[in-house]
Amino acid sequence: MLSERSLPVFPSLIFRAHSGLQPSKDYDETQQPVRRHPGTDCSTQDHEEPGSSRNRKYLRAKMKGRWQEDAYFLEKHFPTDKHSKAAANTLMNTHYNKKTKRWKRIPEAAATGTDIIGSTHTLLNTILSKSNIPSSQRGFLQPDAGTMKVSRGPLLPPSLLLCGAGKAIISNPHDKPISEYYSGIVPIQVMLESEYKPSSRHLSVAHANEIFQAQDNRRYIFSAIMTERYLRMFMVDPSGCVMAPPLDYHTRPLQFCSVIAGMATLDEVRAGFNTSISLDINMRPTIQLAITSGPDAGKQLSYWIKERLFKASRIIGRATTCWLVASMDNDPKLYVIKDAWMGFSQSQNEMEGSLISYATSKGVSRGLVRIQHQAIISIPGRSEDTVVKNRRIRPGVFTTEYSIVQDRIHTRIVMETCGKPIWHFSNRKELLVAFHDAVDAHRRLLQVAGVLHRDISMNNMLINIDPNAEEGDRGLLIDLDFAVRVEKQPLEPMHVGTARFMSYNVTQRRRKHSYLDDLESFYYVFCWLICGYNGPRDSRVKTPDALKALESKDGGESKLLHLQNPFDLPVQSWFGPSIHELAVQLHDFCQSRLEASGPCPDADRDYAEYLGHIKDTIVNLAPEEEANFGNEDTAKLAAIENLATEFFRKRKIGEMDIDMEEPERKRPVWSQVAGNIEPPRRSKRLSRAQVGTKRKRRK
């Protein structure tokens, strides 16, 4: 069985055990399992590269209206100073032709972009050397397309990648730059000027997303496209991408040297790193939090990062990241820290932590996460960390020239450990009780505290992993980033939420968002669970066409047709007739409220009917059926449940022993679940000579 020393990683252990990510016969500890996005057809390794028409179309849609051109971008972020001037003058004596006004070895006419990669690589590293930037901390490297790991592949790596090492680059365990995204600072794509198109800039966004995925402490990411004549600089952040005018680096060598040296600066804040997340003296990742309000204002808190629980797929948007952490103050509990970039209009209302604290003070004690601390991240040398300040936009200019830029503010909250995603249900009853308690939490949040959630999705519903959780706490409602107090809700309709689960009213912006829209979103979440999964942890290989239609471009019209007609979605047979009947009842409920205008005066009746259908289905689940719809490995499940009971008992009485003196070694999943389960045998690989000998023997 597991030792007490390994108990702090229990929430991730439960997550892995219920997700079904068990080792195969050729299991390798260093190999990451292929994770599937909930409710999608493909895994994280099924996406096409940005050069393909499919991904370009997706990026074009995501980046629409998010491009900004700043004529003074280079002067703002890469100003020339006496150090860059001295380095440029020294370099120009040996590497620059003053007569032709061109850098030597950069061909004026090249057949392909590959012809200028080598000379560009040498020139850029020479600039770093003349700028006294140590090669042990910064360097331009040429990534290997065959070995470079990507999160959303297949994706060709950039031609050159400025890599680094040091305290701020927490994902790089080495003491030197490595040609991987986890060590990357600035990706540079080299191509011919004749090959450059406006759509080529999407490559910069794609590579920036890869760096964001690989590193947990990036606030923004610089990116570049370089041809035989021009350098185009980009800055990708949660609000989009700002770009500089093309720089003719042959006729402006001083500015060019300032840009290259500025990319490789050792000032982590200037390079776009979040310095509140760094490595300690023992090379363990830590998070610092300065409390800015309340009785503990001014107090500095420190946490060790145990593991990353969630990471947004792209930097553009809220760029949410969640970690499982342990306090450095001998606190036996584990916590979850969530970083997110809130929209400017949202932050003017209330932060998520403030809304949860307000709801708790009003008496909503179940179905929500417990907030410990919250803060707005500040950058050393200036106040709040916002997009406008990072882009160095003056306040007067922001209201005119940059009025379409959505400003975002960097926030952080500390919560108690929650649970596992709702799509990791172990049996039908666990799914239904968690779904019921999440809907009930929505009811109490609205009727008791007057707060409307407005973003119901599969990612925002959890199953409580505490086996002793009481009714009302078995399912949790999280992520109140879009929540708002009803009395402060804007009067005009808004397109808020997750598109796949939005109600018909929200997609069409017919009327102000109401609780009926969220109940309809709950219904769509339920449909994705019972139609998109064959059973516990068994996601369908292909999403049913009927579900795809509900999230297409005309998803609003498809949802209208779906609600106006009888329920016809393909519910998987594993869920049984009771759950199929529940889906029909929820469909009819949404159908009858489809034309309701504004907040319904009889919310009590609506919630009672909605929750009543779920309760009746839970009662109708036959015990003998439930025994057949559990985990395949009952011995393993029993070991997990016993461990869960012991974990929460010790955490409650403060007997947990968290030993943070030595970083834990990663062990195979089979050794974490139960000690008496025999590890899988690894297949023996034969050399080429041995394979040839075997073939001869067969002949």
UniProtKB/TrEMBL annotation:
Residues 310-648 form the Protein kinase domain. It comes from the Eukaryota. Residues 682-699 have a biased composition (Basic residues). GO terms for molecular function: ATP binding; protein kinase activity. Pfam families: Pkinase_fungal (PF17667). InterPro entries: Kinase-like_dom_sf, Pkinase_fungal, Prot_kinase_dom, Tyr_kinase_AS. Residues 21-57, 659-699 are annotated as: Disordered. This is Protein kinase domain-containing protein. It comes from Sphaerobolus stellatus (strain SS14).
